[in-house]
Amino acid sequence: MGEIIYASREEWLAARNDGIGASEAAAVLGISPFRNNADLWREKRGLLVPEDISDRPAVKYGTLAEAPLRELFALDFPQYGVEYTPYKVYTHDKYPQLRATLDGELLEMDDSAPLRLIKRRGVLEIKTTEIRRASQWAEWKDKVPDHYYAQLCHQLLVTGWGFAVLKAQIKYDGGITTRHYTYERAEMETDIVYLLHQELALWDCVRTGREPPRILPAI
């Protein structure tokens, strides 16, 4: 696994077309609520400029909330070491076009060891969202929405680490709730391998200029 640390957000953004990131995994699979795989291909080829949504209230809130939510996670789960480096990008050791920027890196410690050695590493993903319809709660029942799950698969694919935790702050009419979802890589391996094949196929289309067939969302 390689890593790149960019000097600024501008440099980080400018490098996004150098590969496929975790937030784009769902589009590769045709399960993103925001764009399809053909649109992602056009973006990577420079044929389509993605809409700048950074000024939207929900996006600005999520950006500003990430740091305090990460600090709260560290307080609530002292069994983990929590690390974070701004604009740090991990790249897959064999396929460097597969990249991941993490909200946090988790160090699961071996408390039985005299020096609290690191037992294994994991991914921390932080989401803020708002529930507007009762039916949306089903997406969060005992799991995360599919497009977020694809993101976790991608992050574990790139890093090779053993687990992922998604911390979700969910706003709804009259309140806020926080949930934590833990995923073990061993239980995701089939999905990770499938995602790898799909991402490599999409990137081959980017490399050759051949437009991929559009994946229609399941009804």
State the helicity in percent bands: 25-40%
Oligomer: single chain
Give the mean pLDDT: 94
Largest sheet strand order:
2-5-6-7-8
> Beta-strand level of the residues, as a percent range?
25-35%
Please report the distance between the alpha carbons of the first and last residues. Answer: 37 Å
Number of helix segments? 6
Count of DSSP strands? 8
- How would the global form be characterised? globular
Low-confidence stretches: none
Structure description:
The chain has six helices and eight strands. With 219 residues, it is an alpha+beta fold. Strands 2-5-6-7-8 form a five-stranded mixed beta sheet, with helices on both faces. The radius of gyration is 18 Å and the shape is globular. The mean pLDDT is 94.
Briefly, what is this?
The protein is α+β, with helices and mostly antiparallel strands and 219 residues long. 35% of the residues lie in helices and 26% in strands. α3 crosses α6 and α5 (146-159) crosses α6 (185-208).
Keywords:
single chain; 219 residues; alpha+beta; three-stranded antiparallel beta sheet; 35% helix; globular
List the helices and strands and how they pair.
Elements: E1 2-5, H1 9-14, H2 25-29, H3 37-44, H4 57-76, E2 80-83, E3 88-91, E4 99-101, E5 104-110, E6 117-130, H5 146-159, E7 163-172, E8 175-184, H6 185-208
Parallel strand pairs: 6-7
Antiparallel strand pairs: 1-3, 2-5, 3-4, 5-6, 7-8
